Amino acid sequence: MSILKNKQGERKAVSMLDQNIVDNFLPTFIVDDYDDDVLKKLASIYSEKTLIDVRNLGVDEILELKNIISSLPELSHFNILYPIDVILSAPEIEDINFARIDKTKLNAFFIQWAKANISSLPLNLVFDFEYIESEDQGDSATHLLELLNDLSSDYHAFIVSGAIKKTIPVKVTENYRLERIEKKLLQTLSSKVESDVHLHYGDYTVVHPIPSDPAPITPVVQIKYTTDDNIDFFRNGQRRGNYEFFKVCSDIVNSNPDFDPLYCWADTQIQEVHDAQQNRGNAATWAAYGINRHISVNLK
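Given the sequence above, the corresponding C-alpha cells read:
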C-alpha cells in the first residue's frame, strides 16, 4: 500500500509502473477535490483496485463522492478508505470495506471498544502511524497488538507509516541517507502477532506524511532514491539560476551499486538524463522518479 497525494508527480509515478509487478499493489490517493473530471483523471492512470482516502472530507462530501463512484462505470475499481470516526458517527454509510485508524486511536479505550465490537469492523483495516522516527512506537504498538491478536484470518491489517523528514538536517548541496524504519515497524509487529490476521506493508513513499505549508518554496534539486534498506537523498542545491539536475542523475548512476537502468521507469529516465548531461523536468518530474523507484522496490 502506498499513500499518495493526488498530484502530478504521484500520478505519473503510478502510471509508469511495470504492469508485471502490480498484482499486490494498492495505491491509495488522498483526495480533497472529487468532481467527475478529477476522479476520471485518477481512474485513467491505473485500472486495478485503488483506494480513495477521504480523511479530509466531511460526511456529506463522502456521501456525494460515494454516489459519484457508484454512478460512473469507469470508477468501478475505486474503493473508499473511510476514517473510523466517520464509520462510528454515520451509520447511514453502508458497504464499507476499508477503514483507516490513525495513531491517535491506538489507545486503551478505543482498542477495548474495537475488541468488543470486532464484528462491526470492516475486514480491511489500515492502521496509520503517520510520521515515525523509530520502529519503537511504545504504547501505540502495544495496544495495536492487543487488537491484532484478536483478529481472525478473515481480516487484513495494513501497517502504514512514513519516516521521511520534513526538513533534512544537512545542506541542500549534501547527500543524505535515511534508514527505512517503516519496514522495521512492520517486522517488529509481525514478530509479536500470534493470530492468523494477514499483515501488509504500507508507507507514504518518499513524501513526508504531514501536509506541507501551501506557501510557495524553492524546491531542492534532488531525487530520493530507494533501496531495500535505505532512502538516499541525492541533492544538488535549490532550483534557481543555472541549477544542474543532470548531476544528481550522474551521481546515482556512478555511485549507487543498486542502480540498474532496466529496473524500472525511473531508473531508465535517470540513465537518459545522465547520458544527455542535460536537465529534464521540474520538481514534479523528480518526485515522480523517486516515487516510481520506491514503489517498484517495494513490489519487487
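The two ends are 13 Å apart (CA to CA). Try to locate this feature in the C-alpha cell string yourself.
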